[in-house]
Amino acid sequence: MNSVAVTVDDLNIPNLGPREIPSPGCARDFAAEGSSWHSDGDRIVLDDHMDSIRVAMKNDIDPPSIELAGPRREIFFNPAETCIAIVTCGGLCPGINDVIRSLVMQAYHTYGVRQILGIQYGFEGLDPSCGHKPIELTPDSVDNIPTFGGSILGTSRGKREVKVMVNRLESLGVNMLFVIGGDGSQKGAQAIYEETQRRGGRMAILGVPKTIDNDIMFMDRSFGYQTAFAAAFHAVISAHTEARGARNGLGLVKLMGRDSGFIACSAALATGEANAVLIPEVPFKLEGPGGLLHFLEQRITSRGHAVIITAEGAGQDLIPDAEAVTDKSGNRLHSDIGLFLKEKITEHFKARNIELNLKYIDPSYLIRSIPAAPEDRIFCLNLGRHAVHAGMAGKTGMVVARWHQSYVHLPMSLVTRGRRKVDPTGDLWRSVVEATGQPARMGV
Amino acid sequence: MNSVAVTVDDLNIPNLGPREIPSPGCARDFAAEGSSWHSDGDRIVLDDHMDSIRVAMKNDIDPPSIELAGPRREIFFNPAETCIAIVTCGGLCPGINDVIRSLVMQAYHTYGVRQILGIQYGFEGLDPSCGHKPIELTPDSVDNIPTFGGSILGTSRGKREVKVMVNRLESLGVNMLFVIGGDGSQKGAQAIYEETQRRGGRMAILGVPKTIDNDIMFMDRSFGYQTAFAAAFHAVISAHTEARGARNGLGLVKLMGRDSGFIACSAALATGEANAVLIPEVPFKLEGPGGLLHFLEQRITSRGHAVIITAEGAGQDLIPDAEAVTDKSGNRLHSDIGLFLKEKITEHFKARNIELNLKYIDPSYLIRSIPAAPEDRIFCLNLGRHAVHAGMAGKTGMVVARWHQSYVHLPMSLVTRGRRKVDPTGDLWRSVVEATGQPARMGV
Amino acid sequence: MNSVAVTVDDLNIPNLGPREIPSPGCARDFAAEGSSWHSDGDRIVLDDHMDSIRVAMKNDIDPPSIELAGPRREIFFNPAETCIAIVTCGGLCPGINDVIRSLVMQAYHTYGVRQILGIQYGFEGLDPSCGHKPIELTPDSVDNIPTFGGSILGTSRGKREVKVMVNRLESLGVNMLFVIGGDGSQKGAQAIYEETQRRGGRMAILGVPKTIDNDIMFMDRSFGYQTAFAAAFHAVISAHTEARGARNGLGLVKLMGRDSGFIACSAALATGEANAVLIPEVPFKLEGPGGLLHFLEQRITSRGHAVIITAEGAGQDLIPDAEAVTDKSGNRLHSDIGLFLKEKITEHFKARNIELNLKYIDPSYLIRSIPAAPEDRIFCLNLGRHAVHAGMAGKTGMVVARWHQSYVHLPMSLVTRGRRKVDPTGDLWRSVVEATGQPARMGV
Amino acid sequence: MNSVAVTVDDLNIPNLGPREIPSPGCARDFAAEGSSWHSDGDRIVLDDHMDSIRVAMKNDIDPPSIELAGPRREIFFNPAETCIAIVTCGGLCPGINDVIRSLVMQAYHTYGVRQILGIQYGFEGLDPSCGHKPIELTPDSVDNIPTFGGSILGTSRGKREVKVMVNRLESLGVNMLFVIGGDGSQKGAQAIYEETQRRGGRMAILGVPKTIDNDIMFMDRSFGYQTAFAAAFHAVISAHTEARGARNGLGLVKLMGRDSGFIACSAALATGEANAVLIPEVPFKLEGPGGLLHFLEQRITSRGHAVIITAEGAGQDLIPDAEAVTDKSGNRLHSDIGLFLKEKITEHFKARNIELNLKYIDPSYLIRSIPAAPEDRIFCLNLGRHAVHAGMAGKTGMVVARWHQSYVHLPMSLVTRGRRKVDPTGDLWRSVVEATGQPARMGV
Lengths: 444, 444, 444, 444
Prior knowledge:
Four copies of one chain form a homotetramer.
Chain A: E1 43-45, H1 50-59, E2 65-68, E3 83-88, H2 96-110, E4 115-119, E5 135-136, H3 139-142, H4 162-171, E6 176-181, H5 183-198, E7 204-209, H6 225-245, E8 249-255, H7 262-271, E9 276-278, H8 292-303, E10 305-311, H9 337-351, E11 357-361, H10 365-368, H11 374-392, E12 398-403, E13 406-411, H12 412-415, H13 427-436
Parallel strand pairs in A: 3-4, 3-6, 6-7, 7-12, 8-10, 8-11, 9-10
Antiparallel strand pairs in A: 1-2, 2-13, 4-5, 12-13
Helix pairs in contact in A: 2-11, 4-5, 6-7, 7-13
């Protein structure tokens, strides 16, 4: 599922330098409570297939392994002197507020940290020229926020000058930064981490990967993803209802997924109502005997209705020169695969004089702006808890994630190396092909 | 709320001619069960304001009144010889399947009717040239259908030749037709009624008015409307979340409502999150000191975010010559008020160099294709029950509706005389203005 | 539906005495905004049946009529000197927070009132000996509260000394009190009103009737009721699923309704899955050929499963001497009709050696503690708006309600005169009997 | 998490003997479609901790590993001669219908099997003396069933004579049986498997483990579990609302979990609103300074409200001799920890003269009878798909499950060896203790 070759060294987690004062210890003594501490030596194998294990055994070297998350007996930061900043970047995603709440609750209650700042509007909030003020976060101020979608801190897209941001963090007295954001934002966090290292490395930079497309590597899944495709589920059911409600009805649904088709696949599998799923990872043709239009025509004329799901990033190669079809108003009409398909399908049926009742559904923001569902709430809670454990222990330049059901630490540099994709030869795509009845390769 | 002047005569309900055989009676004896029969003399006043009543009293004439629905002791049709047809026309709306189920259950269980046909794809299904076959409906086949949105019969738009349809009904042996459909479809039903009258009037034609826009006259509300705006509710909440999530965020939501802004108003009131509501009934200006753009700019610059709801039929006068802005692909880009506003607002803020993060949400079919919520289920049940009571009693050329909390009979010719609108001087619009803080008249 | 005879005088709304200073006018000028004022002479008839109207016409006297709600041009209170208190009493109900929010928003924004107090824990909060402090309510503090169920003010049951409460109101400087509560609480409000009248009548006492059972008279429905039975809907669906899932499965659901069976009836109608509904208004027998047990046995042996809904107040006459069956722990086991039926039904089938898989469902608080659904949100918004209009106009000793789709003023003394009941001879009960197939009178 | 020591041999999956005829091959050629086959040698390690791997490496033996699920190139059964039976046993759980649908769809469409029988009411349906007839299952008959909770086949509890059941399967011509059921049912399936082996082993017996308590070993989670605790989530929110709504309010929620407290823990973590969670795995005391009552008293008197979640199997040691507190009616009042706690807590506060408003919520069947949520739908789909792959390949005496995000084959004998429990020293319990603020060990 992750096509990047990974070495043992790729998985090392940076630590801040040696503490100058003795460890103050955690606010809670988990061992005394009957629980247990974790050490950096607690690791799981990255690849749990026996084939990989046997290769390692044969060569008598450890297979690549990942550091497990959890509370460390020795912590780096003195809670009384710790100042945490939290920033949320990029598009909205269910669960951001849950992660914020968890970070605050864990830092406050488990470690006794009292200074927690919310940075407003993403990295903009770390650039004084934008004029956003940080806001103080307390258990009371974050208690109810998971009830609402979005981010109470606001977000923004785009980069800011790294040195400016680190200056700002230093002037605010921050020594631990949590970046809740996607691929681009974690690259930004990595740059901040590198700058802090250059300046002596007394600041911990940690990430909580956010991607509604579920396309960050080395993770079981990303937070908010389950909630998001459950919302997409309803859009597909609506498309099916509309398709059934008219003669030769076609429900065409565009879902998120710029580079990866996970939401489209999941929505198809969960509903069982899609007849074709189009994703960026699997090219397809429109024309010709094995193409989408032919497949669709057959389906419509034999069954009287059909449902198609397209990820927004599917079929980009099919759309001719984007500029050419931009209309006068500047709307990039045709870079939108949904509208492009709508037009092409309509033309095809018109040319053949077959009635078609096409209903186009683009749920867009309705999917990403909802509050996290219960399972995602727990997931966000745990990501936040373990991010704080890691930060207090002096980990930096890393993100928290879940891998094979365990919470782990991953280097930022690793997770931003590529994108997770649907494997066209794997079981997920096979299950989609089985569920839809579509050809595994549509005309390609 | 209904601007049409109504006379006493306008409210007369046609009855089929005298039965040739003695009334067979209802399958159930309600009176014996402790319940009661209704007679055609049971009526309520159309206008219950004391002012109207006093005018009538002064002139010593009855004020206009409406016939109450309910079982009649004498019925016109012999259940054993009754053949019912049900047809669903126009756009989908929550609750259509509930009405179908109720019609079938009531006819079957309460009256003992055994021949019930479902006409497929609207009036098309009554035109043999379209090739659709009627399907038999039974309590078993309709039992679970309210679980699903849409119409199990399928729908279509548009007219068919009246004589062809009546011929078809006669050849199928139908003597009672239920038309579930909107304004246009009830006009079609009226034409069928008139044709059956010309042919001797042995067939009962009854309507169950359907309009997701809640714009049919003389009704407390239309079925599915509550369910629909509850779905619109979530779209507005999403818009608000998106607006809050970005600096100078603007959530722009387009909701149904071609001629009437009820859904837009209801969604605004229920969420309490809209800052402006645009509806067809209340003209507004874009430019100028009292215009939308100015209002919006003030709101955004003072509060940092805003939410606008527009009904699809709002501001049509603002959109210049539709053809001129149709793009090469033939998309009528600008007749869409949502996209038009998106463009105009974006231009305005760009011209003033104010950052704007506009998120456009068009939930469209997601709102109308869902199953009916519990309250609408009961409403549909009752509409179906009373439609069957009316049909069995030999009523024709009429629709069932609820008026002032009572189920009533209304002449088809009356309800298709105009459209229900939001009164710009009434309490509904006043409450919207109060809730949003927008000017009552925006620049007009 | 309301068995109480009502005279014209019963419907008079008390007004506070003449103002000593000139009317300050409303903060908004509705007329200037294109809207309109209402006067006390705007009224609708209480009974809109033509029969009643004709009687009045014959006798040449006005039929009983109700004052319409809405803003008055002349207001009694000077907003700058107005201090409002809001108190919530009795059991929770969806929408309480919506009413609170609406009262605050309307008073603050439409009239400019700046002193608004929330009284904590019901009438307890007006008794200084209980030690609860009032809290200040502002638009900001109430903005999000409809997101949550319950009451942000807390509630309590039971009476407090009237003079103590009025003393407390006076010492707080309150001149307008809104009581959100049920039958008992409105009686309490009436007592407070009478005491304030004795003291010179400078304080307005207004009620917003609250009853999850929908059993307050002279109202289309009570707020929260639709939300509540939509939750009950799901309990009945669960009961049906459980009943279908086992051989001779019986789903037995107990729903709210101490004196009135509205929720039980609505849940049965909306689901279409109940085979018997038991309500306080319709007595039934357990034993004998027409009794519940016999009916149930027939249904189970012929169909293999059944669902029964009982209102909590149904069949109280069947439960023998409550004390006798109280267990040692003091649990009044058998005053609970649900557990009583569970026991009796189990015994019956055991005695006949027929397998029975009974699943008992008591959703209780799950129904009443949820947030209001969108339609109820608008309803609560309007109740709050009109309560403030009435209070500012100097109305007192009254409640706001909706009657025949219009918002109206009703004297407190009227609505507390009895309880609204399901009419065993009316259409609601008839529809239940039709939907369930149960006998209209079960063995009685 | 699983306290059972497992050897390599424990993980062997039985295969039916050598086929007598050449393999007919799968109906689809996955390889030709660009996908891939799986072989029995594709395995993952059971324990992916580096510590375990290193022990294996040191001893130069393979660590225990699990066979991966997936389609095999060579299949055992000729689809044209395959007759499948599906049986559902034990309590309802969200997703049963999804698994049935997936089994049918996969067998029918991917392999071309045409004989698929649904056995009614669990193992009863395999005992001819019970009189239940199998029903034919087809893609059409199962297409919509995930819309409904429960099991379309019905279930029952308890054992039936193994030889009788195998006789019945043989007489029906069944050569592949899928048992959807919990721990007890999988033991039953194991007995059936052993009997079929004794008779020559031509029948494949496969299990799909079902447990709403998530307490079957060696699985990431059980199907329906996420859906179930999402429903429990709402019960806890209601309890919190009720607790906040009254002075010294206490919401006490009893959730499923006879032997394992997973649902209780998950509901607490997802809501963030519980102040104490009681589970079977962690004993607690009522009395004494560290006991529940003391903790609760402190919480109530300091904060004014509290929420407690108890798993139904918690604190069973505290309930004195069950018989002694059984009331006259034979209700085993006190074996119910919820009612027991309700009584004890009420007594405690009464004795101390502290007001307490306790609201007891037992959502019971409301949680288990709902349809599966989207994520569970996909999970069920995959369990069904892989169960059919395994059965067609001639696997037997095994169940399908997910382990560390991979679908795997596990011997029935292994998963029924014990129960999965919440580890009182692990991270799940630690997170609950952190989230609630309760002592890790309550007085014990």
